[in-house]
Design goal:
The complex is a heterodimer.
Chain A (H helix, E strand, L loop, with lengths): L35 H12 L2 H17 L3 E4 L6 E4 L2 E8 L1 H25 L4 H4 L5 H5 L21 E8 L5 E7 L6 H14 L1 H7 L7 H11 L10 E4 L8 H11 L2 E3 L4 E4 L2 E6 L2 E4 L2 E4 L22 H6 L4 E3 L10 H4 L2 H9 L6 E2 L3 E2 L3 H9 L4 E5 L8 E3 L5 H13 L4 E5 L5 E5 L5 E9 L1 E4 L3 E3 L4 E5 L13 E8 L3
Parallel strand pairs in A: 3-23, 5-13, 6-7, 6-11, 11-12
Antiparallel strand pairs in A: 1-2, 4-5, 4-20, 8-9, 9-10, 14-17, 15-16, 15-17, 18-19, 19-22, 20-21, 22-23
Helix pairs in contact in A: 2-6, 3-12
Chain B lengths: L2 H32 L6 H11 L12 H10 L7 H14 L6 H19 L4 H25 L4 H28 L10 H13 L3 H8 L5 H10 L7 H19 L5 H16 L2 H7 L1 H24 L3 H6 L1
The chains are: A alpha+beta, B mainly alpha.
């Protein structure tokens, strides 16, 4: 892999370690010329004394700490809190690029909702053989309890966080649809708030589209999904509780929306009506923005050992007396094997070509695909279909022989459980380093899509960064961080 | 307000009040122990244990510092100071979004101070330094609570927990002294006994306040009157019950809970009793009986708070 310094910038001490390789660089073109939207950013960074950048980075650190945007580290010094790693430099997205992303995501969420309605009703797409039945019915997130159940506005996925990557040619592709309980949106909002204070002049000069209305839009989306006859719905956020790693986000969103943050034990179901226990008595609940997985939400209908849910909740839902966002069983549409069929799903329901393409994917349940993949394990990334957060993965080029052998056995034992994708050289964006210089690191992008009476995508998203040099893993559980994402007005 | 949140706030302040009370009792008795008094070491520390409700798992084994160590740091005892602080912090953590950041940081710091103290095994001298820091920590939390949290329903639940704990603990303490130390109210006190009475007053932070009202002339009747019936002193039972009743009234108004008649009747009756009774009434009933009755009423109020606000049955709630 050849690395070259961008032309004309090799004298810039900030960029002394900045190299280009075959991955798309967000700041420099392949010819080493700076991309127009990054010019002003680089100019400002170059003009600031190095200590000034360090100082601002420190200021931002303190600001995160003070706002309590931290995660708790358990173990010896119980209760010590660390800040979520983040990068000071914004990732810039032009208006044109964003327009395409927005249209592509809208198309995708629309098609996936139609798909979910279909598989839980007539199953036309299965009857016509577009998608093999076994892919759907063998999915661990398929919920037969949802069969024939009518959900408000036919919206199954009200909140999605879709992971995009940018390929070598600059095209954005979809890596993953997170349609169950996507998280991270509080980091998007807080990154923005901190960065606005850290680089105010730069922010103003760029004409960045605002994202602050996300929580309001989320509330509007939830309200639009209330059961019929409940014009002033009472909306709550259901959290698994204080030990969940996203608990900070749950408290943050509940506070920003001004709704109650409830746990399963706060809810009571009586005669198929859901109530919360308050000091003023039982108060009816109409819409639950739930951040608890399907399995744990009702011990009577799903896992009997759960204490995170409320007994009888699913029956109340079936009776149409309460809305859950997202609906049950949406996981069947973000299964990694089903993912390979999303382009067909878009064509089938919308009769359109996908605006955002998929990453090439081998379905290992398919004998031909499997044969190819097993022969090329050292070049591919293998993922378990039901996992997320970067768990259950084999990254071929970075794996040992033993690891590959282990995965080969696992795949052969249960091929339906795995898919394989080529190792992607996804894009890199400039990141601020401890020593004050700037180096490129791999990034992805997770925009958040809201679907209620309309589709809303706030212009931006969570840009996740693989902070370690050369690393391709952006998950926060495994050494990733994040940075603010600026969608430009033009 | 969610019932779970109210419950957590109630216990946060109750546990902190308990930790403060325990620590003060230990601190004062460690001091008194230095003067040779009639009271043998064994008698003294059995009295302390009784005043704390004889916590299970903790026994007098002949060594005062060992006992203090256990009451502060014993991990197996619910009543130990460290477990009270842990319980307070865990309750606060469950409702992190309901309390202010300043409150949380204060409580967290107290927790870390106590955990550190537990890790280092303390010598006798260090205890004398450690115990007051716990009291300081609880006071700072109360100050921060009053100045950074809106005085609404959540704040009122914090007051309910604190003053209910204070009224019960004081009643228990007075009852134990009444049984163990008092012979007859008319007898004058000698120098050693005087020390014991000072100890009792100081266990309620009441020595100086008492002297301002009655001078340093200590008689049992006056001390009992002061700690039971004084309307202005924050550690007297009457003051605690007044505050408790005021907070319960405010909670009722803010929550719009309808099913409160029995709770307000019991708490109002106790308040009225302490408000209109004179010390002669207390002696007519017998101080021991009188104090145990207060204790029973406090338990009853606790149960009723649970019945009304926290663990009410679904049927009752739907019937209203």
């Amino acid at each position: 892999m050849s690395t070259t310094l961008p032309q004309g910038h090799s004298q810039n001490p900030l960029l002394r370690e900045y190299g280009l390789d075959r991955a798309y660089d967000e700041m420099f073109g392949a010819d080493g010329e700076i991309r127009p939207q990054y010019e002003a950013l680089l100019k400002v960074l170059t003009s600031l004394p190095p200590e000034e950048l360090q100082r601002r980075k420190h200021y931002a650190d303190v600001s995160f700490l003070m706002q309590g945007i931290t995660f708790t580290v358990y173990g010896q010094e119980e209760g010590t809190e660390r800040i979520f790693p983040y990068d000071l430099l914004p990732r810039l997205i032009s208006a044109e690029e964003w327009d395409r992303i927005e249209r592509g995501l809208t198309q995708r969420i629309t098609a996936l909702n139609l798909f979910l309605h279909d598989v839980y009703h007539e199953g036309k797409i299965l009857a016509e053989g577009v998608i093999p039945r076994e892919i759907v019915y063998s999915c661990q997130h398929f919920r037969r309890q949802m069969r024939g159940l009518q959900v408000p506005r036919n919206v199954y996925v009200a909140v999605a966080g879709t992971d995009l990557l940018r390929m070598e040619n600059g095209e954005y592709v979809v890596l993953e649809d997170n349609l169950r309980v996507p998280s991270g949106v509080s980091y998007m909002l807080n990154n923005r708030r901190v960065l606005k204070r850290t680089l105010p002049h730069l922010f103003r000069s760029y004409g960045v589209r605002p994202i602050e209305n996300y929580t309001q839009a989320l509330l509007g989306t939830l309200r639009s999904l209330a059961p019929e006859g409940r014009p002033e719905p009472s909306i709550v956020l259901l959290t698994p509780g204080v030990y969940n790693s996203a608990y900070f986000e749950h408290t943050y969103l509940a506070r920003q929306m001004g709704i109650e943050l409830v746990e399963g034990r706060d809810l009571v179901v009586h005669d198929n009506i859901v109530y919360m226990r308050t000091t003023g008595g039982l108060k009816r609940v109409d819409v639950i923005y739930r951040r608890v997985d399907d399995d744990f939400i009702d011990p009577l209908s799903f896992r009997p050992d759960t204490i995170l849910g409320a007994p009888g909740l699913f029956n109340a839902y079936r009776a149409g007396n309460v809305t859950l966002a997202n609906a049950f069983g949406t996981g069947v549409a973000d299964d990694k094997a089903l993912y390979a069929y999303v382009p067909q799903i878009i064509r089938f329901y919308l009769d359109q070509d996908p605006i955002l393409n998929n990453v090439e994917t081998y379905i290992l349940a398919d004998a031909k695909h499997r044969q190819h993949a097993l022969a090329n394990l050292d070049k591919l990334v293998v993922k378990a279909v039901g996992e997320s957060g970067g768990y259950g993965m084999l990254i071929g080029p970075h794996s040992t022989k033993e690891e590959r052998e282990e995965f080969r056995q696992r795949i052969e034992a249960n091929p339906r459980n795995y898919i394989a994708q080529p190792t992607l050289a996804f894009s890199r964006a400039p990141c601020f380093q401890e020593d004050g210089s700037i180096e490129p690191r791999h990034v992805d992008l997770r925009p958040y899509i809201l679907f209620g009476d309309k589709v809303t995508i706030v212009p931006g998203g969570l840009t996740r960064v693989a902070l370690r040099k050369g690393s391709l893993v952006v998950n926060s559980s495994q050494g990733g961080g994040s940075k603010d994402t600026w969608v430009l007005r033009q | 307000m969610l019932s779970r949140v109210a419950e957590s706030l109630y216990w946060t302040s109750r546990y902190l009040e308990r930790a403060e009370h325990t620590v003060r009792l230990l601190d004062i008795n460690l001091g008194l122990m230095l003067d040779k008094s009639h009271t043998s070491a064994e008698r003294r520390w059995l009295l302390v244990l009784a005043a704390l409700g004889n916590p299970p798992h903790i026994k007098w084994e002949g060594d005062a510092y060992r006992l203090v160590q256990d009451l502060c740091f014993d991990a197996t005892s619910q009543a130990s100071v460290v477990n009270c602080i842990i319980a307070a912090r865990e309750n606060a953590r469950q409702v992190r979004e309901e309390i202010s950041t300043d409150q949380w940081q204060r409580l967290n710091r107290l927790f870390h101070d106590v955990s550190r103290a537990r890790a280092e095994r303390y010598s006798d001298l260090q205890f004398a330094e450690f115990l007051p820091t716990v009291i300081d920590g609880v006071h700072l939390f109360q100050g921060v609570t009053d100045s950074t949290l809106s005085h609404r329903e959540g704040w009122e639940f914090l007051q309910v927990g604190r003053f209910l704990e204070r009224a019960s603990a004081t009643a228990m303490l007075l009852d134990v002294y009444h049984r163990e130390v008092v012979r007859s109210p008319e007898e004058s006190v000698d120098a050693y006994e005087y020390l014991e009475w000072v100890g009792m007053l100081r266990s309620c932070t009441a020595f100086e306040a008492y002297c301002k009202v009655y001078t340093a002339d200590l008689t049992y009747e006056r001390m009992l009157e002061f700690l039971l019936l004084n309307s202005n002193f924050p550690h007297s039972i009457r003051y605690s019950v007044d505050q408790l009743h005021r907070s319960l009234t405010s909670v009722q108004q803010q929550s719009h809970q309808l099913n409160v008649d029995e709770l307000m009747r019991v708490s109002g009756k106790l308040r009225t009793l302490l408000g209109y009774d004179q010390i002669s009434d207390v002696f007519a009933a017998g101080p021991g009986n009188y104090l145990r009755r207060i204790l029973q009423e406090c338990h009853r109020i606790h149960d009723l708070i649970y019945e009304v606000y926290i663990q009410y049955s679904v049927q009752t709630a739907l019937a209203l």
